[in-house]
Specification:
With 390 residues, the protein is α/β, with parallel strands linked by helices. The protein contains twelve helices and 15 strands.
């Protein structure tokens, strides 16, 4: 009997090691990882550059606290600001913490404008984390269940509906920010209409509210741009990052532009472990490797290959509602619940996949996958889907 708290319905497998897109279990069986630890290990497993960075830093210094300067943290902040065109970074340990920082920035911004209860517009089907504030911002009733009273101050509107955001802004005079995912990953890999983020940027500017983008799953190259909002050529006021930034080593980041860079001051926010030398060294290795191996533009090509493969393989299959992708965020929506496909893929095809929103197969393969692995994902999973639908 396990002594770990029962917060996960774990699959009956434990992995001992990995290399690239492959994982091996305790019995020596090999599995193709088409999930990347849920968009985390974009460089795959045991990448030499990340391994070297972690090993070297572990032999030097792990922690001093943020009371002192941290060289690798400064270097990482500079790189993220250069890539995003933004101004400053607060480092933490997770995506939920990055979103917590963003929400606190919105609250402070609203309070400075005289709002008694500053509000944040959030979207239906959104997912922002499991802390009390971020689960309150999340648009999934199952995540809320049993945790009332929720944190107040969130106004929920439909995703991909700029008119609904405009209406909320016009009917409320105490809104401080709009918080949105450029692609709803947990919500079912829902990609908004072209121009949606641009419209939100314009609305935020018109009403003098902050545009805050949750790029925890979409950021660090996953969609074929360093950050998904760059597909529309806009810049947010606040952006949250995590997941792929450390390739498995926990790190989160709340990135701000000039407008929001100085809202948090000494004493108003902090972290014990955030931005420690080890996590920042690992993240620097991730960014450097992605640049040197040109993995970000490759995500566009690989995602297109995978979706074209599924479209061809499943074109005559009843029960497929939609196949959608942006870079290497891929969703195959079925007309029925399909959560059991996760276990079937593991057992029958030795492949790691995910099902989200009940009926959408979500694929988030490593950005270092090759053409043969792309073909294997398409062939194996297409066959499994056909059998399942029959």
């Amino acid at each position: 009997m396990s002594n770990t708290m029962h917060t996960y319905a774990r699959l009956p497998v434990s992995f001992t090691h990995g290399e690239g897109a492959w994982l091996w279990d305790a019995d020596g069986r090999r599995y193709l990882d088409a999930l990347s630890g849920i968009a985390v290990c974009s460089l795959g497993h045991a990448h030499p550059a990340v391994t070297q960075a972690i090993t070297e830093q572990a032999g030097k210094l792990l922690h001093t606290s943020n009371l002192y300067g941290i060289e690798s943290q400064e270097a990482l902040a500079q790189q993220l600001c250069e890539l995003s065109g933004m101004s400053s970074v607060f480092f933490c340990n997770s995506g939920a913490e990055a979103n917590e920082a963003a929400i606190k920035i919105a609250r402070r911004y609203g309070n400075a404008r005289g709002y008694t209860v500053p509000k944040v517009i959030v979207m239906e089907n959104a997912f922002h984390g499991r802390t009390l504030a971020t689960l309150s911002a999340t648009g999934n009733p199952k995540v809320h269940e049993g945790f009332a009273p929720l944190v107040e101050g969130f106004i929920r509107v439909p995703f991909d509906d700029a008119d609904a955001v405009a209406s909320a802004l016009e009917n409320n005079n105490d809104i401080a920010a709009i918080l949105v995912e450029p692609v709803q990953g947990e919500g079912g890999v829902h990609i908004p209409s072209k121009g949606y983020l641009t419209a939100l940027r314009e609305l935020a500017d018109k009403h003098e509210v902050l545009l805050m983008l949750d790029e925890i799953q979409t950021g660090i190259g996953r969609t074929g741009q360093w950050f998904a909002h760059q597909h529309e050529g806009i810049t947010p006021d606040v952006m949250s990052l995590a997941k792929a930034l450390g390739n498995g080593l926990p790190i989160g980041a709340c990135v701000c532009n000039d407008k929001t860079a100085n809202i948090l001051q000494p004493g108003s926010h902090g972290t014990t472990f955030g931005g420690n030398p080890l996590a920042c060294r690992a993240a620097l290795a991730v960014l450097t490797t992605m640049q040197s191996e040109q993995l970000v533009p490759a995500a566009t090509q690989l995602g297109a290959q995978i979706c074209a493969g599924f479209s061809e393989a499943l074109k005559d299959t009843a029960g497929i509602l939609n196949i959608r992708h942006l870079g290497l965020m891929i969703g195959i929506e079925l007309d029925r619940p399909c959560a059991e496909l996760v276990g079937l893929a593991l057992e029958q095809k030795h492949m790691l996949i995910n099902v989200t929103a009940g009926n959408t197969i979500r694929l988030l393969p490593p950005m270092i996958i090759d053409t043969e692995q792309v073909k294997l994902i398409v062939a194996s999973l297409s066959a499994l889907i056909k059998d399942f639908i029959k």
